[in-house]
Design goal:
The complex is a heterodimer of chains A (377) and B (243). Chain A contains 12 helices and 12 strands. By secondary structure, chain A is an alpha+beta fold. In chain A, the strands form 2 sheets. Chain A has a 6-stranded mixed barrel with strand order 3-4-9-6-8-7. Chain A has a two-stranded antiparallel sheet with strand order 2-10. The longest helix of chain A is centred in the C-terminal third of the chain and has 34 residues. In chain A, 45% of the residues are buried. Chain B is 31% helix and 26% strand. Chain B has 7 helices and 10 strands. In chain B, the strands form 2 sheets. Chain B has a 6-stranded mixed sheet with strand order 6-7-8-3-9-10. In chain B, helix 3 crosses helix 4, helix 3 runs parallel beside helix 5 and helix 4 packs across helix 5. Classes of the chains: A alpha+beta (377), B alpha/beta (243). Chains A and B meet through helix 1 and helix 10 of A and helix 1, helix 2 and helix 3 of B.
Chain lengths: 377, 243
């Protein structure tokens, strides 16, 4: 191992208090970046949860629909037209919309209704923990998530509440289907969803299209858009991307998360830069001695860069442990922090870059050192 | 006659600008041969350290020429001067300038590391250099665990480990007691015994003169005297023999 690596590490750890302060600063910055970007990923996954769980090949929606929760409506009769398009195997309707849920205590709370044809296997509740999807075919039955039981005033199968004045009973509980809007999802059969949302039976929110094997997706999309007026046809990934783009960028939520991450990078860079600079100033005699001994500029840079990299690796490792804890704690929450291996890699690269950029001020200082100063100190 | 290792030809050096401008060296010419220990003496501010810096390629002369092992420093940039120092010059400083976070062996090895020499061979050479200055038993000691004399001997080992042609020492005994000072001069004298190497010692301490083959005096930036003993023998052999 080159001695400069030893020198860099010893200089770094020589002043333990300063090293701890630096490590805390880096950890703070990296955790901030990890959490912000993890929230970004988590938010991105949350906003497309319904779309991702639908088994449809194509989504037919009102032109200009921005996201899954957009309550634009279509003429229900268009379903028959879509069924006639070559390549379409089956079309089913989906009705969504906000509604009011009255608890047994009389309190009201908003809910988001998801009504689908339960026989069509298009968008059904998943992660069923109690009851069954089949039980939803019973009269006035709904499925809700366990995490909302207090808010909805229900605790067991068969408990009752009102939606828009209509009595409903709990036929199934799910686990982990949480809404990023904090409004609970209520799954029900299509036949009752119109009434719960308060729209006539002649309209639908989406048509979910299954294609025949070997069908040309682009051709089917084109044909549907040609035959049905004022609709757009998107594949599931396209619709997920559109939803994600809307919630993350059009609303500014993504910018806020990126802003937080950027803040973390800036804070981290400033902290590391300050520490490296002050450490370099404290060791000016040593750097001057190295210069007097004839070390090249590259050699001096390497010592400082090694210090920066030590900071980066140690800070990142500590931050990763905290990051794992954050992921674990938020896993069941309304907005989980999702940290993928790719994100770990990106943040590690960002940490390295942050620390190396931070070394620039120290390097500029070292370059200006006059080796003659070794005679005057 | 040995090969000239360091040569200064009509060297002048102006330091500072404006009212603070000082003519630190005035038309200095000097040749340092291998196998000689030269002592450079003079009062404070006479230009001793400036001459040492110019000969050691840390400063470039304002006028005149410096040659190190035959290579002129004229027009050389900072990196080229650093290369000359790396290849040909070893420095010993009054305040040692050891690295407090490195052991004695590592401090010595650093002189090889800056030359891109590392690994087992570099470690062995560092240990040998420390053994040569009598510190074979202090390899793993940190500077704060060593006495002043021992620290200066580590600095000497660092200066000689890469086998430079010129050893330039700035007041090497100023920070140590008389006994250690004599010991250090004996080591430097032994180093100067090598005909391929010259040693230049800047000092105020006249007690070191017995070790010198040559004594140069400088005042107000000019060399005012240059005394040389018989070839290969110290200037005051009798005095040297007493130590």
């Amino acid at each position: 191992m080159p001695l400069r690596l030893t020198l860099a590490s010893r200089n770094l750890f020589h002043d333990r208090l300063r090293f701890v302060a630096t490590a805390v600063g880096i950890v703070f910055a990296v955790v901030l970046v990890l959490v912000q970007l993890g929230l970004y990923l988590g938010f991105g996954q949350m906003v497309t949860k319904m779309i991702d769980h639908a088994s449809a090949d194509l989504w037919v929606m009102r032109k200009g629909t921005k996201c899954f929760e957009d309550p634009s409506l279509l003429d229900a009769n268009a379903r028959r037209t879509i069924d006639t398009v070559n390549g379409v195997a089956r079309t089913s309707m989906l009705v969504i919309g906000f509604s009011d849920w009255r608890l047994p205590s009389g309190e009201m709370t908003p809910v988001f209704i998801v009504g689908s044809d339960l026989n069509a296997n298009t968008l059904q509740p998943w992660n069923i923990s109690e009851g069954s999807v089949k039980a939803l075919s019973g009269a006035n039955t709904v499925a809700v998530d366990r995490s909302y039981e207090q808010r909805l005033g229900v605790s067991k199968l068969g408990d009752k509440a009102d939606i828009r004045g209509r009595s409903v009973s709990i036929a199934a509980f799910t686990r982990g289907i949480r809404s990023f809007t904090t409004t609970p999802y209520v799954f029900t059969d299509l036949s009752r969803a119109h009434a719960y949302v308060g729209i006539p039976n002649t309209v639908a929110s989406y048509f979910l299209v299954d294609l025949k094997p070997g069908a040309n997706v682009e051709q089917v999309r084109h044909d549907i858009e040609a035959k049905v007026k004022n609709v757009e046809v998107l594949t599931t990934p396209q619709f997920a991307e559109r939803s994600r783009t809307f919630w993350l960028f059009d609303t500014g939520a993504g910018a806020a998360l990126f802003g937080g991450a950027l803040l973390g990078v800036i804070v981290g860079t400033v902290i590391v830069a300050q520490t490296l600079y002050s450490s370099t100033k404290d060791h000016l005699d040593e750097f001057a001695t190295l210069r007097a001994m004839g070390s090249s500029n590259g050699y001096l840079y390497t010592v400082i860069i090694y210090q920066a990299l030590f900071n980066a690796v140690i800070g990142f490792c500590l931050a990763s442990v905290i990051g794992f804890c954050v992921v674990w704690f938020t896993a069941g929450g309304a907005l989980p922090v999702v940290i993928t291996p790719g994100l770990w890699g990106i943040v590690f690269g960002l940490t390295l870059a942050m620390c190396i950029i931070s070394a620039m001020a120290a390097i500029m200082r070292v370059v200006r050192i006059d080796p003659v100063m070794v005679f005057t100190r | 006659m040995s090969t000239p290792i360091l040569e200064a030809r009509s060297v002048s050096k102006v330091l500072g600008t404006g009212p603070a401008q000082v003519d630190a060296l005035k038309d200095v010419s000097l040749v340092l041969q291998g196998g000689e220990l030269t002592v450079l003496m003079g009062p404070s501010g006479s230009g001793k350290t400036t001459l040492l810096s110019v000969l050691g390629c840390m400063l470039t002369p304002t006028a005149g020429e410096v040659r190190v092992c035959g290579t002129s420093t004229e027009g050389a940039g900072a990196q080229a001067l650093a290369q000359l120092r790396r290849d040909h010059v070893g420095f010993i400083f009054q305040s040692y300038h050891l690295f407090p976070t490195l052991t004695a062996a590592e401090n010595v090895q650093l002189a090889l590391d800056v030359r891109g020499e590392y690994g087992r061979d570099a470690r062995i050479r560092s240990c040998e250099a420390l053994a040569r200055v009598g510190l074979a038993n202090k390899l793993l000691s940190f500077p704060n665990e060593l006495s002043g004399g021992e620290q200066q001997r580590v600095a000497i080992a660092r200066a000689i480990v890469s086998g430079p042609s010129a050893i330039l020492a700035d007041e090497p005994t100023a920070a140590v007691d008389s006994t250690n000072g004599q010991a250090i001069m004996r080591i430097l004298s032994a180093i100067a015994a090598d005909s391929d190497r010259c040693v230049l010692v800047v000092t105020h301490d006249t007690r070191l003169l017995p070790y010198a083959h040559r004594v140069i005096s400088i005042e107000d930036g000019r060399l005012v005297s240059d005394e040389r003993g018989r070839a290969g023998t110290p200037l005051q052999t009798t005095a040297a023999g007493q130590h």
